[in-house]
Design goal:
Blueprint (H helix, E strand, L loop, with lengths): L4 E2 L10 E11 L6 E11 L4 E6 L6 E3 L2 H4 L3 H5 L4 H12 L3 E4 L2 H8 L8 E3 L17 H9 L11 H14 L1 H11 L1
Parallel strand pairs: 2-6, 6-7
Antiparallel strand pairs: 1-4, 2-3, 2-5, 3-4
């Protein structure tokens, strides 16, 4: 996966709803622990992949976090630059309803913003907090409890899978999530 892959067939058209997930690596001095984008995946309403790419960090990577994200040095060597990927993602996000789990973290690592009224964050949806005793539930927990899907079994290696699960959760609770979003904005 050495280039940005965009798929625009009839079945994979972008549409109004997209879900994204990002993976990060650690860069810079070990005392700073800065995290930067290393991979991003975006899926449409039907779970079809719109974008899936690694991202080459500008700074030297000090921890690939391979045991968590599955990313290795070779994955990033010939990857597109952060600027290329950020520009493409920014174009895709325009006028879209954005779905994700703890989406603020993904937007922060992308250095992008999105209108609050157009964000559906599965980590902040109040009914989902019942699955974790009122605290923020993990995507893994929600997938198992609500969708009966096991994800992140050994490693947290599939951003595509995580984006798809966030979209499935949104689709299952679309009317409630849209109503809550409308009421708070």
């Amino acid at each position: 996966m050495n280039e940005i892959i965009l798929v625009f067939t009839y079945q994979n058209r972008i549409g109004r709803y997209i879900a994204l997930d990002c993976e990060m690596v650690q860069v810079g001095p070990s005392d700073r622990k800065d995290r930067v984008l290393a991979r991003i995946s975006i899926v449409n309403y039907y779970g079809n992949v719109i974008l899936d790419t690694f991202v080459k960090p500008k700074e030297r990577v000090i921890d690939y976090k391979t045991w968590i994200n599955g990313i290795t040095r070779s994955d990033l060597e010939n990857a597109p630059s952060f600027e290329e990927v950020q520009k493409k993602v920014s174009e895709i996000l325009k006028n879209k309803i954005l779905i994700g789990h703890a989406i603020k973290n993904d937007l922060n690592v992308l250095f992008l913003s999105h209108p609050r009224k157009d964000i559906r964050d599965t980590s902040r949806f109040k009914p989902f907090k019942a699955y974790s005793k009122g605290r923020t539930p993990s995507l893994k927990k929600l997938a198992k409890e609500i969708l009966n899907i096991t994800i992140q079994d050994k490693t947290h290696s599939s951003v595509v899978e995580d984006a798809k699960v966030a979209m499935l959760l949104y689709r299952k609770y679309k009317s409630e999530m849209d109503r809550v979003s409308f009421l708070i904005h």
